[in-house]
Amino acid sequence: MQATRTLASAIASNDNSFNLVRLIAALLVVLFHAGEHNTVAPGPDPLSALMLPVADSGALAVDVFFVLSGLFITQSWMRDPDLLRFTVRRVARLVPGLLVCLALTTCVAVISFSPRGMAGLADPAPWRYIFNGAMLHWLVYIIPPAELAIPDVLGGAALNGSLWTVYWEGRMYVMVALIGAAAILPMRRWMMVMSLLLALAAFQFPTVLAGYIWEARLWSLFLCGMLLQTLAEQVRIGVRPFLVACALLALNSTRWLDLEHQALTVFGVNLVAVTLALWVGSSRLLGSRWLPWRHLQRHDYSYAIYIYHWPVMLMLKAVLPPVGIWAMLAATLAIVLPLSVFSWHCVEAPALAYVRAKLAGRRAASASSAA
């Protein structure tokens, strides 16, 4: 599985394994929440128990997501640094699947888990919840808790507690566009300089962007992905960087019990996870001859798994007898995996294909008129 090609070559190819990395990360988040939401012994899942108090499986998976997001979103801007087209592509990636998820899960929750049943859909609250969620709550700094739940539905619990990272993802898209639009150097060099500067500022000057991006951990990891993209033509991630990351983590492992959340220790855990993710993602892991693998290389189910699993788990928790972590995980995935296939093939991929075709047509028309 050792990578012999550069990160840029892997990203540009159709035989990389980044969809597998995203899928594993999404499943780790589901595992983490199954530990929290099971009704027999709520608590950390077995993987999280090995890493506490430094990290947990959910946070580690989200961290990997944000590094990969910084990597690929920066690539999108650098390939086509046009503000309007960048915005349209990003909206097409996030919003259609999210809108359908919110509409479907909200309607099921209102009909099945509210006193009024079907009549509850006549109230404005469910539709306001769907609309605000699909609009990413307009990327405001503080989302009122009342907007994250519907009164009397599932006891007034937040219907989709995992979406907070999607809102931060949207904010980071805005930052990439602003950074790119302000370029005063060649784009690759500019993005490199700004990612380094803002990563330092996130910790040295925490009030920088404090009114818009306060989540320093996720912002810094996203910036690491940005930086990796600017260096992708030189970076090769194989077994050696992974072993070095493991060695650095081992050097800090004896401090875990005494220094909770110490920055260097957290850095070590993330370094191992991100290095492994980049190594696996850059590799031709299972070869192109295995049919299920070729299918996964072309289709990304991770986003739908991530956005559907919380409401599904919440509703299962309300109807199932007491179940442990593995039963909750299995029941959730039995519903979420088919939903993720539906979401990708019927909503997300068609929306992306439509937008790409429209943008390509407009660019071709502009080029011909200019000629």
Q: Can you tell me about this structure?
A:
The chain has 371 residues and is mainly α. It has one domain (18-231, 308-370). Helix content is 68%, strand content 0%. Helix 2 (18-37) runs antiparallel to helix 14, helix 4 (57-79) packs across helix 9 and helix 4 packs across helix 11. The radius of gyration is 21 Å and the shape is globular. The chain crosses the membrane at residues 20-35, 47-73, 94-114, 170-187, 194-214, 263-281, 301-320, 325-344. One of its GO terms (molecular function) is acyltransferase activity, transferring groups other than amino-acyl groups. It comes from Duganella fentianensis. InterPro entries: Acyl_transf_3_dom, Acyltransferase_3.
Order of helices and strands: HHHHHHHHHHHHHH
Low-confidence stretches: none
Terminal Cα span: 47 Å
Kindly provide the radius of gyration, computed on alpha-carbon positions and rounded to a whole number of angstroms. Answer: 21 Å
The count of helical stretches stands at 14
Helix percent band: 55-70%
Shape: globular
Q: Biggest sheet, open or closed, and with what strands and sense? A: none
Give a count of the beta strands, DSSP E runs of length 2 or more: 0
Given the helix and strand composition, which structural class is it?
mainly alpha
How many domains in all? 1
Strand percent estimate: under 5%
- Based on the structure, what is the oligomeric state of the protein chains? single chain
The averaged pLDDT comes out at 88
GO molecular function, one term: acyltransferase activity, transferring groups other than amino-acyl groups
GO biological process, one term: polysaccharide biosynthetic process
Domain Acyltransferase: 16-338
Protein name: Acyltransferase family protein
